Amino acid sequence: MPRKTVAIRGLDTDLYHEVFSMAKKDGKRVAEVVNRALEAFLNGDYTEKTGNGNIDKEVEKNTGVFTLKNKGEISLSKKDILSLKTEVGPFRIETSGKLTFEKDLDKKSLDSIDKIIINDGVIEVPRNLYSLFLIKSDIFGKIEKY
Q: Average pLDDT in the 90-112 region?
């Protein structure tokens, strides 16, 4: 693809310089970072913020991804997650209740979950997968490892 210059009127130059510095540290180009951000925006994978920086609501376009919503208390095993994936494909979980992931979970079964949104609930996760849950989650509640 030929290289093109795109001028963006109103772009926050301080923000641009910060992104430039972070991209350089990660060995990436700004174009690569911006392209990923634009793709995420088009896919609906972004959060709308108010002027004061507080998150008001999750803005999710119809991406066709099933969302399992929990306001009570559920427990999910490896078999449960793989069964859900078979039924609906990769899926999201949104919880305001208590959600426990059983110890039989592994990285492969966790890859079936697109995103986990912890509103004001608690999720309990196996200690060995804690970092992977941090990566997959938007946390407004609490993650406990066991």
A: 95
The C-alpha atoms of residue 125 and residue 103 are separated, in whole angstroms, by: 8
Burial of 75 (C-beta count, 10 Å sphere; 0-12/13-18/19+): exposed
The per-residue pLDDT for 61 is 45
Q: What percent of the chain has pLDDT over 90?
A: 49
Residues 76 and 135 both lie in one domain: yes
The residue length of the chain stands at 146
CA 134 – CA 139 distance, rounded (Å): 8
46 plus 115 within the same structural domain: no
* Alpha-helical regions (H) of the chain: 13-25, 30-42, 78-88, 107-110, 130-136
21 lies in which domain range? 13-59
